[in-house]
Amino acid sequence: GAGVSQSPRYKVTKRGQDVALRCDPISGHVSLYWYRQALGQGPEFLTYFNYEAQQDKSGLPNDRFSAERPEGSISTLTIQRTEQRDSAMYRCASSWGGETQYFGPGTRLLVL
Amino acid sequence: AQSVTQLDSQVPVFEEAPVELRCNYSSSVSVYLFWYVQYPNQGLQLLLKYLSGSTLVESINGFEAEFNKSQTSFHLRKPSVHISDTAEYFCAVSVFNQGGKLIFGQGTELSVKP
């Protein structure tokens, strides 16, 4: 069956450019989560949605980061005016609304 | 606030030897506990979880973890490891009724040598 998919898998961009990272959750999953994982660290929570409503964005590091899930399915995480410190693996996960989250393969972002 | 500490960043072990990966957490409220595994070049996969009930939980590939409330620990064990267990292991917690967001430890890299 189809799992969580993310695109692109790799993104190289220049400092100052905007990037959009996409997450396609498992069909029917209510909740969608975004995490960021720096090299050698565990994933850190960024934000999550129930259906199309953003429930918690306390983990977004600053106002350059935003996320949306307009139809309650696919979600986009946007980083404006990228900086080198934004380089990381960005992970998306989805769940039925229960405790178990299913993770996608991640998008590795490199800001030059 | 909650936090998770994985006490070992790297654990080298020989094949068929036992292994324990340590995890301690800090929380003033009840939490759910998880172990996730990341095999090389793959995404995170749930290995096992503790929600309630029996404090000993098991995975399908022979790992087990025991929730110890008094010591706020959730150590992962396997009596005999295989080469294929080589991966990075992450301990995580989530707080009941707070949306399910996971708080992860820094990870332990398990390296199984022949």
Strand elements of chain B, count: 12
- Unreliable runs of chain A, pLDDT <50, ≥5 residues? none
- DSSP strand content of chain A: over 45%
Q: Termini separation of chain B (Å)?
A: 41 Å
* Helix share bin of chain A: under 10%
Note the gap between the termini of chain A: 36 Å
What is the chain-wise order of helices and strands of chain B? EEEEEEEEEEEE
Mean model confidence by pLDDT of chain B: 93
Main sheet record of chain B? 6 strands, mixed
The value of Rg of chain A in angstroms is 13 Å
Q: Structural class per helix/strand content of chain A?
A: mainly beta
Q: Largest chain interface and its two residue counts? A: A-B, 28 and 23 residues
Mass-distribution shape of chain A: globular
The unreliable regions of chain B are: none
Q: Find the structural class of chain B using helix and strand composition.
A: mainly beta
Helical run tally of chain A: 0
Helical residue percent band of chain B = under 10%
Structure description:
The complex is a heterodimer of chains A (112) and B (114). Helix content of chain A is 0%, strand content 49%. In chain A, the strands form two sheets. In chain A, strands 2, 4, 5, 6, 9, 10 and 11 form a seven-stranded mixed sheet that branches. In chain A, strand 5 and strand 6 form a beta hairpin. With 112 residues, chain A is mainly beta. With 114 residues, chain B is mainly β. Chain B has no helices and twelve strands. In chain B, the strands form three sheets. In chain B, strands 2, 5, 6, 10, 11 and 12 form a six-stranded mixed sheet that branches. In chain B, strand 8 and strand 9 form a beta hairpin.
